[in-house]
Design brief:
seven-stranded mixed beta sheet; globular; 9 helices; 2 domains; Aspartate Aminotransferase, domain 1; Aspartate Aminotransferase, domain 2; alpha/beta; binds pyridoxal-5'-phosphate; three-stranded antiparallel beta sheet; 34% helix
C-alpha cells in the first residue's frame, strides 16, 4: 500500500483498478477482454457511448458541443487546435503562464500569427496576469489558456471573460476536479493521465459551430469535423483507455460528481498548504496566494541539502513520486481526484515530523 503523488500518469481509484482486474478476461459475460473486442461491435459501442453520456452528465456539457475521444495526449492537441481553429482569421492569442502554455504556443506558431495576450514570465510564472491587462486582439480566432499549470502549480480560480472570442482551455490537469460552465468555452481538451485514466487518450469538447474550418493540410485523424462525424471512430480508438475512463466517470458519479469531489479537493489542498505555511519557513510554496493549484502543490525545502533525505524518508513511509520538476526544484505533491484524504493526511504528518527533526 503506497500513496502515489505523481504528476502523471497519476494515481487511479483503487476501486476502478480492481474492477478492471475483475473484468479483464471476461467483460460482462462476453467471454472477451475489452482489449480484444471490435471497436465497432455492440459491446464496445455501449462502452464508449456510456463513457460519453457519463462525461456529459458530470460536466453538464450542452447539446451543441461534441465530445471527441482522440489519441496522442494533450501535446498532439497543441497542433490540432490551431490546425482546426486558426483558419477563420489566421490569428490566435495565447496566455503564457508556464511550461505547458509554452508548449502550446511553440507548436501553434507553425500554423499562423500567434500573439501573447499576457505572460507571467516576469515573475517566473508564479502568478496569473490580471485579465484586465490582457491584450486580446479582436480578430483572434481563439484565445488559448492553461487553467492549471501542472509544473508551476498555478491555477485559475476563475474563467476569463473574453467576449465573443472562443476560449480554448488545456484542462489536462484539472478537468473534473472543479465545476466549470462549459458554455463559456469554445473548446476544452485534456490528456487523460491525470484525472481521467490511462495516458495516450485525450478528450476534446468542442462547440459545433467551430467545426469545419480546418486548414487544408490538417491530417484526417486530427480534423475535428471528420472525427465528430465518425463518432471518434475514423480509425481504431484507444479502446481500453476509453473503457477505463468510463469506469472513472462512473466512480466519480458515486463520489457525488464534480461538485462532490471539488469539496474534497478543496479540503485536501487546504491541508497541504496549511502544513507548508505553518512550517515557519521550513517549506515554502512560491505561488501567489490567489492562484495556488488544488491539484499540484510544489514546495521547496529551506535547505536543498535536505531534498534527498526528504525523498528517502518519504519513500520509507510509502509516500512516492514527490520529487519536483527539474525546472522548479524541491518537491511537488500532485493530489488529483483519486488521491484519498488518507494520503494527504499521511503526507502532512510526515512533513511535520520531518521538519521537526531537521529544523
Ligand atoms: C500533462 C500535461 C500535458 C501533456 O500531456 P501529454 O498527454 O503528455 O501530451 C499538457 N498540458 C498540461 C496542462 C498537462 O498537465
Amino acid at each position: 500500500m503506497v500513496y502515489n503523488f505523481s504528476a502523471g500518469p497519476a494515481v487511479l481509484p483503487k476501486e476502478v483498478l480492481l474492477q478492471t482486474q475483475q473484468e479483464l478476461l471476461d467483460w460482462h459475460g462476453s467471454g472477451m477482454s475489452v482489449m480484444e473486442m471490435s471497436h465497432r461491435g455492440p459491446e464496445f459501442t455501449q462502452i464508449i457511448q456510456e463513457a460519453e453520456a457519463d462525461l456529459r452528465e458530470l460536466m453538464a456539457i450542452p447539446a451543441n458541443y461534441k465530445v471527441l475521444f482522440l489519441q496522442g495526449g494533450a501535446t498532439t492537441q497543441f497542433s490540432a487546435i490551431p490546425m482546426n481553429l486558426i483558419g477563420r482569421t489566421g490569428k490566435a492569442d495565447y496566455v503564457h503562464t508556464g511550461h505547458w502554455s509554452k508548449g502550446a504556443i511553440n507548436e501553434a506558431k507553425r500554423y499562423g500569427d500567434i500573439h501573447l495576450a499576457a505572460s507571467g514570465e516576469d515573475r517566473h510564472f508564479t502568478y496569473i496576469p490580471d485579465p484586465a491587462t490582457w491584450q486580446v486582439r479582436p480578430d483572434a480566432a481563439y484565445l488559448h489558456y492553461t487553467p492549471n499549470e501542472t509544473i508551476g502549480g498555478v491555477e485559475y480560480q476563475f474563467v476569463p471573460e473574453v467576449g465573443d472570442i472562443p476560449l480554448v482551455a488545456d484542462m489536462s490537469s484539472n478537468i473534473l476536479s472543479r465545476s466549470v460552465d462549459v458554455s463559456k468555452f469554445g473548446l476544452i481538451y485534456a490528456g487523460a493521465q491525470k484525472n481521467i485514466g490511462p495516458s495516450g487518450l485525450v478528450i476534446v469538447i468542442v462547440r459545433e459551430d467551430l467545426l469545419g474550418h480546418a486548414l487544408p493540410s490538417t491530417p484526417k485523424l486530427m480534423d475535428y469535423k471528420l472525427v465528430a462525424d465518425n463518432d471518434s471512430m475514423l480509425n481504431t480508438p484507444a479502446t481500453f483507455a476509453v473503457y477505463v475512463a468510463g469506469l472513472i466517470f462512473k466512480w466519480l458519479k458515486v463520489k457525488g460528481g464534480v461538485a462532490g469531489i471539488e469539496q474534497l479537493n478543496i479540503a485536501k489542498a487546504n491541508k497541504v498548504y496549511e502544513a507548508i505555511d505553518q512550517s515557519g519557513g521550513f517549506y515554502r510554496n512560491p505561488v501567489a496566494l490567489d492562484c495556488r493549484s488544488r491539484m499540484n502543490i510544489p514546495f521547496v525545502l529551506q535547505d536543498d541539502a535536505l531534498n534527498a533525505p526528504f525523498l528517502k524518508a518519504a519513500a520509507e513511509r510509502h509516500l512516492l513520486q514527490l520529487k519536483g520538476h527539474k525546472s522548479v526544484g524541491g518537491m511537488r505533491a500532485s493530489i488529483y481526484n483519486a488521491m484519498p484524504m488518507a494520503g494527504v493526511d499521511a503526507l502532512i504528518d510526515f512533513m511535520r515530523e520531518f521538519a521537526a527533526r531537521h529544523a
